[in-house]
Design brief:
mainly alpha, about 55% helix, PPP2R3C, Recoverin, domain 1, about 150 residues, cytoplasm
Length: about 150
């Protein structure tokens, strides 16, 4: 049996060993942490004026780029006009529908900003038990308004 002092010494030794590995004093055998990219950068302090300005500028550039990707009112009106023009009959009550072939035609004519919305994946996501394999024009337009 070990004495109480020996147990405390052993515990302290293990604690020091693990603490040093965690702190980085002694490298661990497992180097997988080297491959993990850095994902957090601390916010600049008040006295780091240059870093604050850099952060503000990069944020402004990011927001400008995102803003240019958004559809403006004219582009949305044009999209609605094209969707309405290429609807596929028969209508379901008051609901205008469009099939995949016409959906792709509208995608070609709608312009580069709209191209991201005219994919098979989005069409399939909005497809709901239509016997003719069509989606609702209104549902698609609302999807574009929410995502765009």
């Amino acid at each position: 049996k070990k004495s109480e002092q020996e147990l405390k010494d052993e515990e302290m030794e293990l604690f020091t060993k693990y603490y040093m590995e965690w702190k980085g004093g002694k490298k661990s055998d497992n180097i997988s942490y080297v491959n993990i990219p850095r994902f957090y950068y601390r916010l600049p302090a008040e006295d780091e004026v240059l870093l604050q300005k850099l952060r503000e500028e990069s944020r402004a550039v990011f927001l400008q780029r995102k803003s240019r990707e958004l559809l403006d009112n004219e582009e949305l009106q044009n999209l609605w006009f094209l969707l309405d023009k290429h609807q596929t009959s028969p209508m379901i009550g008051e609901e205008a529908m469009i099939n995949y072939e016409n959906f792709l035609k509208v995608g070609e004519k709608a312009g580069p900003k709209c191209k991201q919305f005219f994919t098979a994946k989005i069409f399939a996501k909005l497809l709901h038990n239509d016997p003719y394999g069509r989606i609702s024009i209104m549902q698609f337009f609302n999807y574009v308004m929410r995502k765009g």
